[in-house]
Amino acid sequence: MECRSVATDAVQREPGKLFLDGTTYKPLFALENPGTIRWHRTSPDLMVFVGDKGVGYWDVRKNTLQVLNPLSGYSKADIGVNKGNLSDDGTMVVIAATRSDGKQVIFAYDLVSGKKYPDIDMSGWYELGWTTISPAKKYIISYSAKTSGTNKHRLIFTLDGQLVQSWTEYERPGHGDFGLDKNGDEVFIGRSKSPPEQWQIIARRLVDGQVTVLSQPCFASHVSKRNLLDPDWLFATFTPRDLRPGFAPYTGEIAALSMDGKQTARRLVQTHAAPNGYLTEPHGSPSPDGRRVIFASNWGGKDGPIAAYVAEFL
Question: Mapping DSSP to helix (H, G, I), strand (E, B) and coil, where does residue 259 land?
Fold first, then answer.
């Protein structure tokens, strides 16, 4: 395993993006964002953007935009309140926007066919949080609070706006990601902070809320399933903590855990992160093939600079 720093500062305070070579990690160019952006799933030169110009493709090498839909009648358009993913095949996105009548709405958009799905009116909710399309594009998931001071709900809708599930428990799970389980069902994967699986990593099925336990109690702060070509594993980032009896022996590291419920683990890399606020949390995110993971770290310096590191696995 090799671990290399790939940037001198992972915290960018300007709206632009620095692009690096994926093999050498040397800077190539810096560009101003056309809005909220996500990498295209199959074309390495393209990003999907949602912003003032609408929704479309951004060719980062040519720095050109292809607007697929100007989203007329909507303003403040965003990809799921800045935290949504594309569907696993890269063809669908959920857009959050303010409609011309002032209502906050969310809707699915098919990037290939150009089909816009019906608006889901979210204006009755106190706070609209992250919103995303599910991996197999069957559902829209939104993390929103009904009234001030209450737990946010995980709201799961069909694409035409019918409510399928409303999970009201506190982070059951949270700080996670979406993927497919061993049966091909869409699940939300993360550490639960509510009984009966408190502190364990779980996979919760979107269609009916059924839970599969994937780990012992542990200190996982973040779970990622961006390894779309290596679906049998999840990548968990563990905060540096003193171990507790009965807790998994992972601390200050990133490990891959199996999705089959057998709790098989591959311990991959120490993050050397010294906790000092949210920006110092490593938040490991794997490459599509699961052979690399990128994470942030201040490398033991609590008040030191935060850099991005890539660990490569044989």
Answer: coil
Query: pLDDT tens, 29-43?
Result: 999 999 999 999 988
CA angle 249/197/182 to nearest 5° reads 85
Compute CA 241 distance to the chain's CA centroid, rounded to the nearest angstrom.
24
Output the six-digit token pair for 4: 């290399």
Residue 56 to residue 41: CA distance in whole angstroms: 14
Q: Would you state the pLDDT for residue 4?
A: 63
Using a cut of 0.70, tell me whether the model's pTM lies above it.
yes
**Tens digits of residue pLDDT in 55-97:** 999 999 999 999 999 999 999 999 998 789 999 999 999 999 9
Cβ-based neighbours of 166, under 8 Å, separated by 6 or more: 153, 154, 155, 156
What's the pLDDT at 5?
A: 57
Q: What angle do CA 21, 78, 111 make, to 5 degrees?
A: 75
Query: Under CATH, which number does the domain 33-168 receive?
Result: 2.130.10.10
Question: Domain extents for the chain?
Answer: 33-168
Task: Give yes or no for a contact between 165 and 154, defined as CB atoms under 8 angstroms apart.
Answer: yes
Exposure on the CB side of residue 10, measured as CA atoms within 13 A? 22
Tell the burial category of 277 from Cβ atoms under 10 Å away from its Cβ (0-12, 13-18, 19+): exposed
Q: Evaluate the omega torsion of the peptide bond into residue 231 and state whether it is cis, within 30 degrees of 0.
A: no
